[in-house]
Amino acid sequence: MAGSGNNHLRSEFDDILLTIENLVVEFPSGRKNKVHAVSDVSFDIRKGETLGIVGESGCGKSTTAKAIVQLPKPTSGKVEYEGTDLTALSKEGMRLKRPSIQMIFQDPISSLNPRRTVFNIVNEGTRVWSTEHSRQQELKVEEMIQAVGLDPKEARNRRPHEYSGGQCQRISVARALVLDPQVIICDEPVSSLDVSVQARILNMLQDMKDEYGLTLLFISHDLSVVKNVSDRVAVMYLGKICEIGDGDVIYENPAHPYTRLLLAAIPDPDNKHSQISDVLEGELPSPLNPPSGCRFRTRCPRATEKCEAEEPVFQQVGDADHWVACHFPHIDDLADTPNSEFNESVKDTNADEILWPPAD
């Protein structure tokens, strides 16, 4: 599942706002070891689009998000925003780009300064960056606070601990919006909230996207959440993307074994994938020593010796915006897919060579 290659990057579009190419993030561990947090990740996002990145905890989703804004700076690879490689910018050059790319963090309460009033928290960005008169700045802050459904007058005197978790996340959204960014990176923005609150925050994010023409990178471990907010979906496992493409296409016809198992785990009575009998077993391997070849092979019901020896590359599924990195994608659903390169690669393969362990 360790997908390599950049075949899935959409060079045919002229409205690509953000392109991540061969991104690598490694952290030292002891004298000789390295944590391979993100390995050769590539994707792009068009202006006005929402890309959802989904995967288990520890797969590198949040590290990818932070590396985009150079926190931390990637070990290697490119992060191109409007044609400018952010990894090549000086510290001052990157500072000038920061208003255009904002983040909403996972824990809304700990991401807000408890000593400041909510109004001052939202206003901090305008005080640093805005060239407008102070009264104009205040009007802008009031507009953003009201846009997320909070009272600007109360925000002048109240601090974060006086608001609920959902309200604090609204404050985080207002803080991100006040600088008029083009891109907002949402790092698990609803994972710490009650289910009833999650829906309201997601609806608000969609409204903000439509009203202000935003481009979103939405990160979550919850496939059902990503499904509702994303135009395209990328599935990550152990630092790599294994499947990417149109969200509806992937949910209707998942090609990668890992994606299928994640979809089968969604607790939805109408979930057609719940009949999948395979179960995702075992623990996520250590990023200190990831498996050779396909990184998913140690937990994959279809793994063979080829998966151990060769890393799969991205190939297109039919004519759709659907790309998968797997030697043996789910051929039951893909058998009738027109022009699929996989039909040729698996048509003469014996089922016992695909299934592991072999069928009885």
What structural keywords apply?
single chain; alpha/beta; 14 helices; eight-stranded mixed beta sheet; four-stranded antiparallel beta sheet; 360 residues
Task: Characterize the structure shown.
With 360 residues, the chain is of the alpha/beta class. The protein has a single domain, classed as 3-Layer(aba) Sandwich (Rossmann fold). 32% of the residues lie in helices and 21% in strands. It is built from 14 helices and twelve strands. A hairpin with a 5-residue loop joins strand 11 and strand 12 (322-324). Helix 3 runs parallel beside helix 6, helix 4 packs across helix 6 (165-177) and helix 6 (165-177) runs parallel beside helix 7. The longest helix has 18 residues, at 195-212.
Outline the biggest β-sheet: 8 strands, mixed
Within the CATH hierarchy, at the fold level, what is the topology?
Answer: Rossmann fold
The CATH architecture can be given as 3-Layer(aba) Sandwich
- The coarse silhouette is globular
Distance between the termini: 25 Å
How many distinct beta strands? 12
Strand content: 15-25%
- Unreliably modeled segments: 334-360
Q: How many helices? A: 14
Q: What pattern of helices and strands is seen along the backbone?
A: EEEHEEHEHHHHEHEHEEHHHEEHHH
Query: Could you give the order of strands across the largest sheet?
Result: 6-7-8-3-9-10-12-11
Round the Cα radius of gyration to an integer and report it: 22 Å
Provide the helix percentage.
Answer: 25-40%
Count of discrete domains: 1
Structural class: alpha/beta
Overall average pLDDT:
87
- Assign the CATH superfamily: P-loop containing nucleotide triphosphate hydrolases
What is the level 1 CATH name?
A: Alpha Beta
Assembly of the depicted chains: single chain
